[in-house]
Amino acid sequence: MEEINRTLFLWINATPNSPEWLLSLATFIARDLIAIVPLLIVMLWLWGPREQVASQRTLVLKTGMALIYALSISWCISQLLPHPRPFVIGLGHQFLSHAADDSYPSDHGTTIFTFALAFICWHRLWSGVILLLTGIAIAWSRVYLGVHWPLDMLGGFLVGMLGCLASNLAWQLYGSRMLALTHQIYRALFALPIRKGWVRG
């Protein structure tokens, strides 16, 4: 597997001869496109058709729980199975500044793939597919720029699956109570914007 990982990395990784526009595009995707996750969470919680707000907030909370579980699993795996990044061992070319911490599984990959899988499972297939394609783009860009291995991204996808499974199981135990509590806290903190009609109550 390690040999396959290295071969795939060198096949995807950019070189000093790679087009400048492609490096710039990959940098934007690798560094900034992940912002779609918090933006969608905020938008789905605060706004939307009145008849859909309840289901949107259920989606947001289940997805948030899945992210917490997935990132916790990811952290545990990185502690148990530390793996250096490509540039740490001097393989390939690095075009994105990054700390020399453990690479497996990718936090970016875990986050976006958990989000995509959550939308596939609990929202609509088309929205999940769009997020999945976004995740693939992020995965490609971070390998292309030399800060991750291809299997780091596959690991993020698999951990995302585990996070969604854990969230779904946990939701059956305490999801409704957590949703009610979250609503109470939200309405207390956002009482003025709700009264003004800026956000949904």
TrEMBL record:
Residue stretches spanning the membrane: 21-47, 59-81, 112-139, 151-171
EC number of the protein: 3.6.1.27
Annotated InterPro entries: PAP2/HPO, PAP2/HPO_sf, UPP_Pase
Keywords per UniProt: Hydrolase, Membrane, Transmembrane, Transmembrane helix
Single GO molecular function: undecaprenyl-diphosphatase activity
Residues covered by the Phosphatidic acid phosphatase type 2/haloperoxidase domain: 63-168
Pfam family, one: PAP2
Reactions that this protein is recorded to catalyse: di-trans,octa-cis-undecaprenyl diphosphate + H2O = di-trans,octa-cis-undecaprenyl phosphate + phosphate + H(+)
Cellular component terms (Gene Ontology): plasma membrane
Keyword Metal-binding set for record: no
The protein, known as: undecaprenyl-diphosphate phosphatase
Species, as recorded: Pantoea phytobeneficialis
